[in-house]
Specification:
- The protein contains 17 helices and six strands.
- The chain is mainly alpha-helical.
- It has three domains: 59 residues; 148 residues, no CATH class; 192 residues, Preprotein translocase SecY subunit (Orthogonal Bundle).
- The strands form three sheets. The protein has a two-stranded antiparallel ribbon. The chain has a two-stranded antiparallel sheet with strand order 3-6.
- Helix 3 crosses helix 12, helix 7 packs antiparallel against helix 8 and helix 15 packs antiparallel against helix 16.
- The termini are close together.
Length: 448
């Protein structure tokens, strides 16, 4: 092989690796640009609202469920902007569709049809998102009309026109965020919806820390307790990282097969089962389910509704009923979502078709029962871990008015999304390095 030919081959190899790295940069820049657009949208207000009166009203209720909703929306609810509903209606619609795929045979059959069925279910989810966003948007518009501060109503000109424009604006904002999240997933890195929620929480961390230090400066909480909060937060982050990376490895063996004079197989690999298969989905789903009725109750309570006031009181943060419901929903969604993403019977059938087996376990039904047994035990530990992480800081939040961004749900989402994002970036980098090594080996072979 001539020197010029080798140089051309090396140049092509370097160009390919460089183009791959450029693709990763483009994906990262796209994610950054999309998140900047999202943050800009959280400052565009809904027309017809007095921001000063709204801020005064929100200050009275931010310690309750509205504070949690505001955390997920990145402060958009507090400012009543076009993204005030955030992606919560989409998450609620996703919950409903996943439940229906289990309960309705037609939707279950669609799910098994592959890409075409998945697109159809996604379309149904979008329709559900529009309905839920419109319903919640109208409820917020009506609630805003009944909210008054020291200087009058929060709505400048109440009436059907305000309700219509607010409903359309909030619904459009949610649909845009849903589209933006899908674009991040397809053209960027990581799960788009999770990154939007992550950005909203992280954006509130500086102000949350400032409020915490302000509580210490004014003497509401002691300096020692602030250090305790910081220590608890760091300990929770370490626990979350450890538990999220924990997995049970089940050894899968493949028998030897002889084809002609060659022997194939006889290898062993492992099937990793995560301790927390559901990830951040359970706390997000649980919060979404609780926020839907509680938001309406909180707005109605502001206008003087006695029954709604009672509901808001019993389901306030730190109250036993709220904690019990939250724990129950988190545990339920841990098991439910794990059953959705991992099917022991289907996995056992695939292993049997490929000749794989677990030592000491018969292929087929016994393998499915064994996988289900292991997964149930893992999910039980994972569900208790998530419930502990999410609920324990909520008690601090309720008793000492610590900002919600420092709560367990926010920390769990931030750490999980960060781990997932870093893992995907590393996968892209490893793929580039691996391709470079393959091309180098081919180049050396041709040079010889």
């Amino acid at each position: 092989m001539t020197t010029s030919a080798a140089e051309r081959l090396a140049s092509n190899m370097n160009f390919s690796v460089l183009s791959r790295a450029t693709e990763l940069k483009k994906r990262l820049w796209f994610v950054l640009g999309a998140l900047v657009v999202y943050r800009l949208g959280t400052f565009i207000p809904v027309p017809g609202i007095d921001p000063h009166i709204l801020q005064e009203i929100f200050a009275k209720h931010q310690g309750g469920v509205l504070g949690v909703f505001n955390m997920f929306s990145g402060g958009a609810l507090e400012r009543m902007t076009i993204f005030a509903l955030a992606v919560m209606p989409y998450i609620s619609a996703s919950i409903i569709m996943q439940i229906l795929t289990v309960a309705v045979p037609h939707l279950g059959a669609l799910k098994k049809e592959g890409e075409a069925g998945r697109r159809k279910i996604n379309q149904y989810t979008r329709y559900g998102t529009v309905f839920l966003a419109a319903f919640q948007g109208y409820g917020i518009a009506v609630g805003l009309e009944g909210m008054t501060g020291s200087k009058g109503s929060a709505v400048i000109d109440p009436g059907m026109f305000f309700r219509f424009t607010t409903t359309v604006t909030l619904t459009g904002g949610t649909m845009f965020l849903m589209w933006l999240g899908e674009q991040i997933t397809a053209r960027g890195i990581g799960n788009g919806i999770s990154l939007l929620i992550f950005t909203g929480i992280v954006a509130g961390l500086p102000s949350a820390l400032a409020r915490t230090f302000e509580l210490g400066r004014t003497g509401v909480i002691s300096t020692i307790f602030i250090f305790v909060i910081i220590a608890v937060v760091l300990a929770l982050i370490a626990l979350i990282v450890y538990m999220e990376r924990a997995q049970r490895r089940i050894v899968i063996q493949y028998p030897k097969r002889q084809m002609g004079n060659k022997v194939f197989g006889g290898e062993s690999t492992h099937m990793p089962l995560k301790l927390n298969t559901a990830g951040v989905i359970p706390p997000i789903f649980a919060s979404s389910i609780l926020l839907f009725p509680l938001t309406i109750a909180s707005f109605q309570a502001s206008s003087g509704g006695g029954g709604m006031q009672t509901i808001s009181t019993y389901l306030a943060h730190g109250q036993p009923l709220y904690i019990m419901l939250y724990i129950a929903l988190v545990i339920f969604f841990c098991f439910f979502y794990t059953s959705v993403v991992f099917n022991p019977a289907e996995t056992a059938d695939n292993l049997k078709k490929n000749g794989g087996f677990i030592a000491g376990i018969r292929p087929g039904q016994q393998t499915a029962e064994y996988l289900d047994y292991v997964l149930t035990r893992l999910t039980t530990v994972g569900a208790l871990y998530i419930a502990l992480v999410c609920v324990m800081p909520e008690l601090f939040v309720a008793k000492y008015s610590v900002p919600f961004q420092l709560g367990g749900t926010g920390l769990l989402i931030v750490v999980n999304v960060t781990i997932d994002f870093v893992t995907q970036v590393q996968s892209h980098l490893f793929a580039h390095q691996y391709e470079g090594l393959i091309r180098k080996s081919k180049l050396k072979g041709k040079l010889k």
